[in-house]
Amino acid sequence: xxxxxxxxxxxxxxxxxxxxxxxxxxxxxxxxxxxxxxxxxxxxxxxxxxxxxxxxxxxxxxxxxxxxxxxxxxxxxxxxxxxxxxxxxxxxxxxxxxxxxxxxxxxxxxxxxxxxxxxxxxxxxxxxxxxxxxxxxxxxxxxxxxxxxxxxxxxxxxxxxxxxxxxxxxxxxxxxxxxxxxxxxxxxxxxxxxxxxxxxxxxxxxxxxxxxxxxxxxxxxxxxxxxxxxxxxxxxxxxxxxxxxxxxxxxxxxxxxxxxxxxxxxxxxxxxxxxxxxxxxxxxxxxxxxxxxxxxxxxxxxxxxxxxxxxxxxxxxxxxxxxxxxxxxxxxxxxxxxxxxxxxxxxxxxxxxxxxxxxxxxxxx
Amino acid sequence: xxxxxxxxxxxxxxxxxxxxxxxxxxxxxxxxxxxxxxxxxxxxxxxxxxxxxxxxxxxxxxxxxxxxxxxxxxxxxxxxxxxxxxxxxxxxxxxxxxxxxxxxxxxxxxxxxxxxxxxxxxxxxxxxxxxxxxxxxxxxxxxxxxxxxxxxxxxxxxxxxxxxxxxxxxxxxxxxxxxxxxxxxxxxxxxxxxxxxxxxxxxxxxxxxxxxxxxxxxxxxxxxxxxxxxxxxxxxxxxxxxxxxxxxxxxxxxxxxxxxxxxxxxxxxxxxxxxxxxxxxxxxxxxxxxxxxxxxxxxxxxxxxxxxxxxxxxxxxxxxxxxxxxxxxxxxxxxxxxxxxxxxxxxxxxxxxxxxxxxxxxxxxxxxxxxxxxxxxxxxxxxxxxxxxxxxxxxxxxxxxxxxxxxxxxxxxxxxxxxxxxxxxxxxxxxxxxxxxxxxxxxxxxxxxxxxxxxxxxxxxxxxxxxxxxxxxxxxxxxxxxxxxxxxxxxxxxxxxxxxx
Lengths: 365, 501
What we know:
The complex is a heterodimer. Chain A folds into three domains: 1-50, no CATH class; 126-183, no CATH class; 190-361, Rossmann fold. Helix content of chain A is 32%, strand content 20%. Chain A is built from ten helices and 13 strands. Chain A is extended, with a radius of gyration of 27 Å. In chain B, strand 6 and strand 7 (433-438) form a beta hairpin. Chain B is of the alpha+beta class. Chain B starts with 5 loop residues before the first helix and ends in a 12-residue tail after the last strand. A five-stranded mixed beta sheet of chain B has the order 6-7-8-9-10. In chain B, strands 1-3-2 form a three-stranded mixed beta sheet. Chain B has 22 helices and ten strands. Chain B has helices at residues 6-21, 36-44, 55-69, 95-114, 125-143, 145-157, 185-190, 202-205, 211-218, 229-236, 241-256, 258-262, 264-283, 289-300, 309-326, 330-335, 339-343, 352-362, 365-372, 375-380, 402-413, 447-461, and strands at 29-34, 78-80, 85-90, 383-389, 394-399, 421-428, 433-438, 465-471, 474-480, 485-489. Strand 4 of chain A pairs antiparallel with strand 4 of chain B.
C-alpha cells in the first residue's frame, strides 16, 4: 500500500476537504514572507491529534549551551537526525520554497476560479477520467487484469498455487475496480485587471498590503492558468495603466476618485476583452475613502450596469488605514446586496491577507 | 542476506564481527538498501513497511520528504526492534555513512536484545503490524473509509492513556466486570425480601431497607483506579466488535512503542557510544576520519533550548565508564569534600566497561538520569532549565541549578512527559457516567486539547464523561455530555458528593 494514499488523505485534511473539525489543529504558521529572490520561508503544515497533554507554556525543559539566566532560548530548530517512531511532531520545520511551490501550498486552501468556456479557442475544464483503482465498486467497473493479479499473488503467497494446474479463483478481496479521478486542464481566455488606489490617504503599510495581496493572487492565478492576461491600473484622482513592475513599486499621492479607475477599466474591457469571449476578473483595492458621495454613486451604477453583467467576479478589497476604514465598503454592501459576482473583503492588517485571499478565491467562481 | 551489494556486504560482515568481538550481543540483523523515498515512507510508518492506512503516516511522510528534499534533515539510520532486526541503509549515502550507520545499528540491536525493558515486546511485530493493517483495511471495505478512519482518530486521541508499566508487573490482567453499571444491582438485591402480610410489620421483618443503598455507595467500579483507559474501554464501552478490534489494535501498537520511548536517551547514547568507539578504533581508515567527525558532530549537535538524546546519552555513558574506571563512586567518593582529591581520584578499578553493560541491561531513562546525572556532568555539559516568561513572551534560561535540572529532566521523562489519567469511576453519580482523574503534578492540561479529547472519549463511552483536574490553580470537574461542555469547581459542589481525588 503506497504511502501516497495516506499523504493525499492528509492533504485533504489540510485543505479542509474532509474532517473540518481537525481544521483548528492544523498549524500553518507564517504563510507569506518577502519577495526576495523568489524565496520565502514557510512552515510545513501539520495536524496535531488532540490528546491530554500539558499546556506548552507551563512546561519548560532542559537545554544545553551558553547563556545566563534570563537569556532567551527561542528559535530552537533542531538540526540532526529525523527520528522515527513514537513521538508526535511538535515542531514544524521551516523550509525555503520557491514561488511556484508556495503558490501551490497557498492554493491548497483555495479553489480555482471556474473559468467558463467562452470564445472560439479550445477549452478544457474539469473532466473525470477512470484511471484509479479501488477495492470496492460496481461490478461493471471491475478490472480483470488487476483482480487476477491480486488473486494470483494471494494464491502464490498462501502456497495454493500449482503451476501444473493453475486454477485461480478470485475472492472478494482480490477485486479491483476502476475509479474516477477528476482532471482539471484549464486553458482559456481570461483576463485579470488589478486596480490600486495610490492616493495620499493610503499609507505605505496599506500599499504594502495591497501589493502583497495582489501579488499572491496574481502568482496563484498565473500559475494555474496558462495564457492568463493581466492588466494593471493605478489611480488617485486620475487613473492610468501601468506595467506589472510599476504597479508593484510605485507610490503616488493625491485625492481619490474611484470612478476614474472604473472608467479606465471599462475602457480596457471595451477595447480588448469582449465579455462574450473573455472571462474577466477585475480586482480593486482601496482604503475606501472616496472623494464624494456622487462619485461613489457613479461607481455603484457602473458596477450594476456595466461590470456585474459582464464579469465573472468583481473583487473589492478594502484596507484598514490609520484614519479608520472608509465608507466605500459599506456603500457597496448596502447598494449591491446579495450579488455573488461581487466579492467584498476587508483586510485589517498583514496577517489577514491570507484570509482575504481566501475571501476572493475561496469560492471557486 | 538481503541485497545491499557485495561491497557493503563485505563491510557489514567485518563490522558485525568487530561488534561481536567488542562484546555486543544482538539478534541477526538484516540490512536493506532503499531509496530515500522508501526510507521516508518506512520511517513515516514508525519503521514498519506495512501499517494500517491513516493520514498521520502521510503527514509524517510529507514532513520527512520535505525536510529531505530541501536539504534540511535526513534520516541516517532506521532500525526496528524485532527478531531478526531490520535496518535500512539509504541508497546514495556515502560509504562512510553506511559504515557508521551499520556500527550504530549493531549498538541498537544489542540494546533491543538485552535491555530488560524490551524483554516483553513482540519481536514479530512486522507481521503483527501487517495483520493489523489487513484487518483495518477489511473494516474499511465493509464500513467505509471515513467511518473507520474517524474512529481510529478517536482511538489515537487516547492512545497515550495506557499503563506503561503494566507489562512488567506480574499483575494478572483481570478484567473486572461490573455487576451492572447503571446501578441496577440495587433492584436485584432488594428482591431478596421476605414477604410481608401486614404493612406495619415491614420494618420489623425487613429491617435492612437501607442496606442495599449503603452497598451501592460503596461498590465503585473499577475497584481501583485504572490507568489502562484503553483496556477498560475495550471491555466496558458499548462498542461494536470491529470497533473493539480497532481499539485493541491501537492499544497493542501503543504498548509496542513504550520501551523505545522509555529508553530513548539510553538507546541512542548506547548506539552512539559504540559507533564512535568501533569506528575510531577499528573500522575506519585514516582517509575517512574527517568525514566521520563531520557526521558524528552533526548528530551530536545540540541547539540552545534543544535537547538531543544522542548527545546526553553518549556523554553520560562515557561519564559512567570513566567514573567506574577511576572508582569515582560509592560512599567514600560522595563523602569526600576535598576538590583536589576528587579531581585526581583514581583507584584504577577499571570497572567502567562492565558497569555500562550492566547499565544497558537494567536501566531505563528515568532510572538512568536519576542515578547517574551528577552536578559535575551538568556543569561540564552546560545544561540549564528554561521556562516560559510571560512578561517577555519568550522561553528563557531559568537556572543552572543542579537539582532543578534533574527535577525537570525526570519530570519530562516520567510517563514520557505526559499527564497520568486514570479511570476512577465508571458509574459516576450513579448515572453510568465516566469519571477520569488527572494525577496532578503541578502542570495543567492544555484546555482545548483536553476538551476535544473528552469529547472523543464520550463518543466511545456514549454516556457523559467527567474529568477531575486542576485548571487555573483550582480543582475542577470538566464534563462533556455529548452536547455541551460544563465545568464546576470542587469547592462549588453540593456537599454530599465529595468525590474529589
